[in-house]
Design brief:
Layout lengths: L10 E6 L4 H16 L4 E8 L2 H14 L4 E9 L8 H12 L5 E5 L6 H13 L4 E5 L13 E5 L1 H14 L11 H14 L4 E6 L11
Parallel strand pairs: 1-2, 1-4, 2-3, 4-5
Antiparallel strand pairs: 5-7, 6-7
Length: 214
């Protein structure tokens, strides 16, 4: 497997349909970035969430990114209804796209959840000059695909991700899909695929590789 360094990443736009999307799909990546980049800036964009859920998201972002400069763009669109608010969602994405970003993380456009899928579809039209990678979220629909970007995680990083998910999203523990074995199992599977113990996986639809002259 070939590797591409993210050492040049200094600014990130992280987009989710709901509180906890970003952390479930890319919490390990956030932990790795904040460890490696002392001056990291992150713009958190959430399309939906009641005030209590948005408070969870703020606390989680501070825990996953303790040394980063984080700004929030939080909206209150209804869960499961983002396609019915297409114009507003499009505007949210376009507003976020004016932020300079070395990396943009969004849900997969192959996600079975209509809210996630819409963000994945719109992201690649709004962010035309940034690297966009699309994260996966396990669910009962069985929509996991074939990713082409992997972020290896140590056992400590994987454990920290699961710990922070449980600590900062207590409202979600009532769901049968919220389970440590689910989170660890997917990270272990993606780790096996990338020859590491654990990993998160993403899909990149288009990348341009620049080669500096010798």
């Amino acid at each position: 497997m070939l590797s591409l360094s993210l050492a040049g990443v200094r600014s990130v736009v992280a987009i989710g349909a709901h509180p906890d999307d970003i952390e479930i799909g890319a919490g390990g990546l956030l932990l790795r970035l904040v460890e490696a980049v002392p001056d990291l800036t992150v713009r958190y964009v959430l399309c939906g969430g009641a005030p209590a859920r948005q408070a969870e998201a703020r606390a989680a972002a501070s825990a996953f990114l303790p040394y980063a400069r984080v700004t929030f763009d939080l909206h209150d669109l209804p869960d499961g209804r983002l396609p019915g608010h297409w114009n507003r969602v499009k505007q949210i994405m376009q507003d976020a796209a004016v932020t300079p970003a070395d990396l943009v993380i969004v849900p997969s456009r192959s996600d079975a959840h209509q809210d996630h899928r819409l963000l994945g579809e719109l992201a690649i039209t709004a962010f035309r000059d940034q690297i966009v990678i699309q994260y996966e979220i396990p669910k009962w629909d069985g929509d996991l695909g074939q990713p082409n970007v992997y972020i290896p995680l140590t056992a400590e990083q994987a454990a920290r991700k699961v710990e922070l998910l449980n600590t900062h999203f207590p409202s979600q523990k009532v769901h049968d899909w919220w389970d440590d074995e689910v989170f660890y199992g997917l990270m272990r599977l993606r780790g096996m695929e990338s020859r590491s113990r654990y990993a998160e996986a993403f899909t990149a639809t288009k990348l341009s590789v620049s080669i500096a002259p010798a």
